[in-house]
Amino acid sequence: MSGIGERIQQADWKKEKHAPVIHCPDAVVAGQAFEIKVNIGEEIAHPNTTEHHISYITVFFHPEGEKFTYQVGHFEFSGHGEAVAGPNQGPVYTEPSVVAMMKLSKPGTLHAVSFCNIHGLWESEKEIKIAA
Amino acid sequence: MSGIGERIQQADWKKEKHAPVIHCPDAVVAGQAFEIKVNIGEEIAHPNTTEHHISYITVFFHPEGEKFTYQVGHFEFSGHGEAVAGPNQGPVYTEPSVVAMMKLSKPGTLHAVSFCNIHGLWESEKEIKIAA
Amino acid sequence: MSGIGERIQQADWKKEKHAPVIHCPDAVVAGQAFEIKVNIGEEIAHPNTTEHHISYITVFFHPEGEKFTYQVGHFEFSGHGEAVAGPNQGPVYTEPSVVAMMKLSKPGTLHAVSFCNIHGLWESEKEIKIAA
Amino acid sequence: MSGIGERIQQADWKKEKHAPVIHCPDAVVAGQAFEIKVNIGEEIAHPNTTEHHISYITVFFHPEGEKFTYQVGHFEFSGHGEAVAGPNQGPVYTEPSVVAMMKLSKPGTLHAVSFCNIHGLWESEKEIKIAA
Ligand SMILES: [Fe+3]
Ligand SMILES: [Fe+3]
Ligand SMILES: [Fe+3]
Ligand SMILES: [Fe+3]
């Protein structure tokens, strides 16, 4: 079995508009809330139309040296100009960017997975340490 | 039919920890991206444990004078200390707060609905104008 | 505050293609798994195109005489013919129908809420008893 | 970058209770609706408690020989006995099983990914042909 992992695309976000960018501290204090921002198209904007858009970003955390991965959040961007009058005539567009707030008690890796409705799954990751 | 609307609770967020608080400008420029922050427990913190937590916030927009409501986003907070070692032993907690980015071309009302896994559905709303 | 409840539309599913139809037993045995099917467009089919489709159905349960409502499930239909080649050229369509499996230990009301990306929120409900 | 793919676990569902089982025809008629059932714990039941449960199943489709993957659906199981009275005292349990209805116009691979709140991500896949 090859697995869905082979279908999750990776790329340098400075060159590829689908790659999620994870913004958070390199090290955090255990049990203290911190902000994580994940966005798509930071260098090259991704389209946001009824026919082509980023549907969601899911964030996971894998603690260093452990077996199982946790989910941090699943963030859906629902407005893409849909309307009774026709595509891209509607009053609402939601941009592919989210800021969440989280706490960690162990070091590990944050994984962000995004889904473009026509260009599929993309991912990026960032290590995070626990400050001494 | 009474409807689910009767089950969506409303309260003053300064007195009730479940009521979502919507932070956004009172007026925005048509087609220009702006931030919306929605959080729970701004005045009185809500618990965040494996057994009791805020599962998600969904944001809707109803254009003034129109018939249909649009969805802006659905934001799930997935980490609540779950772990193989037992409840509240896990390394990840996601706080019930989200910042999204959106564009509007019409005035209307933003609605935020949140769900506590044991205290059910809660809502709040905020009018938003289009700046001249 | 008027509330999102006023924006959740109700209609007879035999005449209105958006109204969800809830199929489940009228009475179930406490703690015994049973199937619930919820679908849209049972009598009059709803379109399923890139520009116009049912995005999801959420199911809630309110125990008779209690204060808080529980969520049973949230079921998203993601395929609507989207493709790089253009709208409605893609290989996947997901129909607005779901069968889930659940257990209850109290009587109450099942609520189904569906969202059409251009015609907004719709709901229906069905009482369910616990068999003696 | 190692990628989230390395964290998505694979196993024989006859021996491992987390592995999703995909039930659908081996071949379908192009453009004709068919049922797909995905469930967890078909041979060995998975726990369903407030502290330990299957949160969701997401289904993807990758058309044979193509570059991008599509999402079919995302199905969340929300009831796990949560209650004000304490964990596992609530009236609702949602079992990790879903039946959806879909159409395909190309052959390819269906991927199911499930998430256990303490044992992480699991996947399985099934090839599907277009009947002549
Ligand atoms: Fe794209
Ligand atoms: Fe609560
Ligand atoms: Fe519609
Ligand atoms: Fe498990």
From TrEMBL, chains A, B, C, D:
<feature type="domain" description="Desulfoferrodoxin ferrous iron-binding">
    <location>
        <begin position="11"/>
        <end position="124"/>
    </location>
</feature>
<protein>
    <submittedName>
        <fullName>Neelaredoxin</fullName>
    </submittedName>
</protein>
<keyword id="KW-0813">Transport</keyword>
<dbReference type="GO" id="GO:0016491">
    <property type="term" value="F:oxidoreductase activity"/>
</dbReference>
<dbReference type="InterPro" id="IPR036073">
    <property type="entry name" value="Desulfoferrodoxin_Fe-bd_dom_sf"/>
</dbReference>
<comment type="similarity">
    <text>Belongs to the desulfoferrodoxin family.</text>
</comment>
<dbReference type="Pfam" id="PF01880">
    <property type="entry name" value="Desulfoferrodox"/>
</dbReference>
<keyword id="KW-0408">Iron</keyword>
<dbReference type="InterPro" id="IPR051233">
    <property type="entry name" value="Desulfoferrodoxin_SOR"/>
</dbReference>
<keyword id="KW-0479">Metal-binding</keyword>
<dbReference type="InterPro" id="IPR002742">
    <property type="entry name" value="Desulfoferrodoxin_Fe-bd_dom"/>
</dbReference>
<dbReference type="GO" id="GO:0005506">
    <property type="term" value="F:iron ion binding"/>
</dbReference>
<keyword id="KW-0249">Electron transport</keyword>
